[in-house]
Amino acid sequence: MIDLNSKPEIDFPEGAAPEQLEIDDIVVGDGAEATPGATVDVHYLGVEFASGDEFDSSWNRGQSINFPLRSLIAGWQQGIPGMKVGGRRKLVVPPHLAYGPAGSGHRLSGQTLIFVIDLLGVS
After folding, report:
1. Which of 6, 14, 22, 99 has the fewest Cβ atoms nearer than 10 Å?
2. pTM above 0.85?
3. Is 14 part of a structural domain of the chain?
4. Which residues is 12 bridged to in the sheet?
């Protein structure tokens, strides 16, 4: 049983990084559904695909984060709509849907990223 009240763990990925967004529902929620224009309240964990190194986690800060989807990376804008509150979803986001190609100025540019997202609320 998956405990949605604790920080998720991500297994080190095998094989080549995907070139397209991969969406995998770990737990399907039964609450309100996120829409493309929604503001979402989430807990999340992010790791680099190539190394498995964690680069960000709301769990480490001890509080969820509230974001308008339109202000997030394209991988989240495409990967969260359709998710329901109470769900946990894994997104594998290639560079063109994250922070762009290597040399784009962000420390994660050129990286394929893995996120595990718990949807806590939608407004």
Report:
1. 14
2. yes
3. no
4. none
With beta carbons less than 8 A apart as the criterion, state whether 69 and 102 touch: no
Rounded Cα distance between 25 and 102, Å, is: 29
Residue 10 lies in a domain: no
Coil, helix or strand at residue 64: coil
Contact at 8 Å (CB) between 80 and 24? no
Is 99 part of a structural domain of the chain? yes
Show pLDDT as tens, one digit a residue, over the chain (123 residues).
Answer: 677 778 888 888 889 999 999 999 999 999 999 999 999 999 999 999 999 999 999 999 999 999 999 999 999 999 999 999 999 999 999 999 999 999 888 999 999 999 999 999 999
Q: Is residue 86 domain-resident? A: yes
Tally of structural domains, the chain? 1
How far apart (Å, rounded) are the C-alpha atoms in residues 85 and 44?
14
Q: Would you say 91 and 76 are in contact if contact means Cβ atoms under 8 Å apart?
A: yes
- What whole-number distance in Å separates Cα of residue 74 and Cα of residue 10? 21
Q: Measured between alpha carbons, how far apart are the two ends of the chain, in Å?
A: 28
CATH of the domain at 82: 3.10.50.40
